[in-house]
Amino acid sequence: MAEGIILDVTPGDATLDVEFLQRLGHPVLVCHGPHERQLCPILKDRCEMVEQAHGVIFQLDLDRPMHRAILKRYQNVLAEDVPIRAVIRPGQEERYAELLSGVQVWTSEPTLGELDGFAAEVEAADTFR
Predict the structure, then answer these.
(1) Domains of the chain, with CATH numbers?
(2) Is 38 helix (H, G, I), strand (E, B) or coil?
């Protein structure tokens, strides 16, 4: 049985180690964020990928206002027990402290150990949901 779906929100063609997460039993959905000059669907209404997510790893640039709005919307629409991780650059943790409240952060590309820990948190949340 597959465990909870992890949503990898990452810019461009980059992704996390999707194969590693899949070997742990987690299907991974990848979203590369909105295209230039387009509004992200979740800011207009809803997003099917977010609705399916049991955990989110958010890697969009928080220095962009739309990306901050997307992360805030995730926090508003996802259940409190759905873990969200944000991969941020140094200094963003202080600059966006209020937005990142309740979101755990990684200040560098997550290691396999960190991904494994996140997958375990998603599984634990699913178990107690």
Answers:
(1) 6-128 (3.40.50.2300)
(2) coil
